[in-house]
Amino acid sequence: MRTETAWQRVVAPRPSGLPNLLVLVGFPVVALLIVVVLVALGVSGNSSGVYWQSFGTGGADPDLLAGRPQGIRSDEWLVQSSWILSQVREGFPVVNQSFPGGMDATIQNDLPTWDWSSLFRPHVVGFLFLPLDQGMAVRWWLPVVSALIAAYVFAVTVMPRRPATAAFLAIALCLSPMIQWWFLPTTIWPVAWAFAGLTAVLWAFRSSRRWPAVVAAVVTGYLTVTMVMSIYVPYMVPAAVVLVAVAVGFLVERLRTPGTTWWRTVRSLVPLAFAAAGAVVVIGVWALTRLDTIKAVLGTVYPGQRLELTGATSVEALGSLFSGPFQRSLQYGAVGGLSVNQSEAAAPLMVVVFLLPALLWVLWAGLRRRRAMDWPVLATVVVLGVLFAFLLVPHWDAVAHLLLLDRSTDARIRLAFDLLGLVAVALVAARLDAGVGARPVEDAPTGDVGAPVRSRVPWGTAGYGPVLVLVSAGFVYIGLRIGGSNVLGASHAWRIVVVLLAVGVLLVARRWIAPGALLLLVAAVVVGGGVNPLYRGVFDLATQTTAGKAVSRIVDRQPDARWVGIGGYVPTAMLLETGAHSYNGVQTYPPEEMWHEIDPSGRYEPIWNRLANVNWLDGDGAPKLSLPVRDQIRVSFDGCSRFAQQNVQYVLSDQPVTDQCVSEVREVTQGQQSLWIYRVDRR
After folding, report:
1. What one-character-per-residue DSSP string does 317-353 give?
2. What pTM did the predictor assign?
3. What's the rounded Cα separation, in Å, for the pair 580 and 173?
4. Residue 534: enclosing H or E segment and its boundaries?
C-alpha cells in the first residue's frame, strides 16, 4: 500500500467526499482576519483621493497608501460615495431629499438607510453603526471577501484535497479586470451568489448530514435577495447563466448515478427550494412596497428595459474580449483599439477557452473508459458555446431573450468567462485526480491496488491550450498594431502574461494543478492587481475643503434653501456631500417635482427621463436641456429666469458667473481649485 503523507492526512476529505472542516474554513478565516484589520484601520480601495488633485496643498496625498486613484471609477468615488455622504448628512432616510421631491434611497445607488431592506444589504450596515471611514471599508471589502470565500468553498468542494489550488483560483478571480474595473457591491455580489448557489447544489447532493445543505441553502437565498436589491441586471445575467447551466450539469450527474432515485434527489433539494421561495417572498415584498419607484426606473428612456441583439460583437470587440494579457495598459489610461474607457475595455483572462482541449479530452476519456457522460463538464462546454453564439451569431434573438442573455451587454457578459474559468480548472483537476482516462487499477504496473489512480491529459492534447493562448494573443497584437494603438506601448508586461497563461493551462492539463493555478494567479496579479488604490478613509468634500465648510454653514442656517451647481463634477459632488438640497446629481429615475419645476411643459422629457448625471452650465433664459452622451444631462442656468427666481436660492460654481441676478457671497481657492458661492437675487 502507498504510504499516506502528513499533508494527505491533513486534507483528507470526509467520507461523503466533501472537504474536512480545516480545509473548508482555513483560508476563509485568514481572509476574514485580514479584512477585519483593514476595516479597523479604515483602509479601502476607494478612489475619492481624486479630489486631492484639485484641493491638495502640494505633495503626495497623505491618505494614499498605495497605487493611485482611478478617475474613470467615477461611479464609485463621484456617484455612489457622494450619495452615501449625502445619506450620512441626512441621517440615513428612506427618501433622500437632495433632489426636490426626493429619491427612494432603498433603490438608488445601493445606499445605507434605516429601512428593513438594509438587513439584506450587509455591506451598508457599517455606515449605520461605525464611523464613516470604517463604514466605507466594510462596504468595500465585505462583497469581495464574500465572493472570494464563495469561490474558494465551491472550488474546494469540487477538489477537496486541493485547498491551495482553490485559494489561488479564488484570488485570481477577484483580481480579474472584470471585477477590479467594475468594483462595486452591485457587480461583486452576483459572483458570490453564483458560487454559493453551486456549492449549495453540491452539498445538497453529497452531504451525509442535513445541516450543511441547509446552511448553504440559507446563504444562497440570502445572497439572492442581496443581489436582486442591487438592481444591476447586466452583471446578474452572466452569473445566473453560469449558475443554472453548471447546476443542471450536477443535477443530471446526480440522477445518472447508480442507486440514485428521483425522489431522493428531489428530497435533497428541499432546503434549497425553501430558501429560493423565501428569497422570492422577500423580494416580492420589497418590490411591492416600492412599486412606483420600480415603475419609474423601468419607464425611463435609458436604460429602461434595454435589450441587446445577438451577434452584435464586432471584430474589434472580439479582440477586446481576448485582450486579457494586455490589460496592464488600462492602468495607464491606454485603451486605444479596445474600447472607450478602462471599464468598458476590461476583459477576463479567458482561461476556460484555453482549457477547452482539456475539457473535451475529459469528456472523451470518460465516454471511452466508463461509457458515461461527464455532465458538469459538458454543461461547462455547452454554456461556453452559447455565450460565444450570443456574441457572434445573429438572428436568434427570441431564444436569447428567453435565456435572459439580451439583458446584459457585450462588456458585462464577459464576467461569465471568468466564472467559467474557475469552474473549468476545478473540474479538470477533480477528473484528473479521479483518474479519468487512466487504465484500470488492476492494470497499473505499480501494483498499488486500492491506491488512487491519477491521469493526465496527453501532451498532444494539452499542447493545444498554449497554442490557443498564443493564437489569441497574436490576433489581439496584430489588431492593435495595425490600428496604431497605444496599448502595446503601455502594456510592457503582456509577453509575460502570455507565457504565464500558456504554461499555466499546460500545467493544469498535465495535472500539475497547484503550480498551474499559481501561474494563473500571478497573471491575474499583473493585469488586475494595481487597478484600485489602498486609501485611508474617504476624502470628504464637506469637512476637508474650505468651500465645503462654507457651503455646510449656509446649509445649517438655511436647510431648505435650494442650490444649483455650475461647471464640472466638483460642485455637484460638494452639494451632495454637504447635504444641500440641489438640482445636481445622478438620478436613477427622474423625480417628478424636480423636473416639473425645471421643465413644466414636459418639452424635454425624452432627455431627462433617464438614469443620468444632472449638471448645469451658465446660460440665458429658461432652462435648456442637452444630452452630450446618453447618461449625462446638461441644463442651462440663468438666475433671472422664472425657474431660478421661484426655486433657487444659491449657486455653487467652479467658474465666475456674470449673471445680473446673482451676487457673490464668497470666492474660495484651495490647491488648484477655485469655487464661487452666489446668492440668487429676487427681481
Report:
1. HHHHHT-GGGGGGGGGT--TTT-SSHHHH-----HHH
2. 0.95
3. 40
4. strand 534-536
